[in-house]
Amino acid sequence: MCNTEDINIDDIPEVVYDSAHAKRGALNPLSPSKDRITIRLDKDILAWFKGRVHEQGGGNYQTLINDALRRATTENPKRDTKELPPMQPTYRPVRTGGPGFSIFVVCFLLAAALTLGAFMYWKRNMNAKATPPAKQGSPFSSTSEGMNVESTIPRVSFSVKNVC
């Protein structure tokens, strides 16, 4: 156990943080000539650039990728486009089916079932209000003429488990 009475805290200087000169934003702001983008690269290509950075003893693999692209565009700017691999379309293909569609169908059917159940419950209550109740004995009496309490409780139950 550490005895805190042996520690002299009088020698420790007080640290005061002055936030008057603090700035919000990234620690390393982008230069005006660069844009932040998201790009998908093959894993082996990314590993190759990260390996070059590791061999050099540090640095930034994004800078190496930028330098490689700059060399490719400036060495032969009028390169024949037939030499390049075919490009994939820039539009997003329409998906059919899949988990998103299945969830939509389940939610739609659930909403339809709940709507139908609510309508039937409302309709039954409207019919019950239209007919006057017959004269019955006390619900607490033990005679057979007494009102059956369980028959007046509506039985509506829904079971929903991890659907939406």
Descriptive report:
The protein is mainly α and 164 residues long. Among the domains are: 36-77, Arc Repressor Mutant, CATH 1.10.1220; 98-127. The protein is built from four helices and no strands. Helix 1 (43-56) packs across helix 2 (61-75). It is flat, with a radius of gyration of 37 Å.
Helix content: 40-55%
Gyration radius, rounded: 37 Å
- Strand proportion: under 5%
Order of helices and strands: HHHH
- What is the arithmetic mean of pLDDT? 75
Distance between the termini: 54 Å
Structural class: mainly alpha
Which CATH C-level class of the domain at 36-77 is it? Mainly Alpha
Number of strands: 0
Helix count, DSSP H or I runs of 4 or more residues: 4
- Name given to the CATH architecture of the domain at 36-77: Orthogonal Bundle
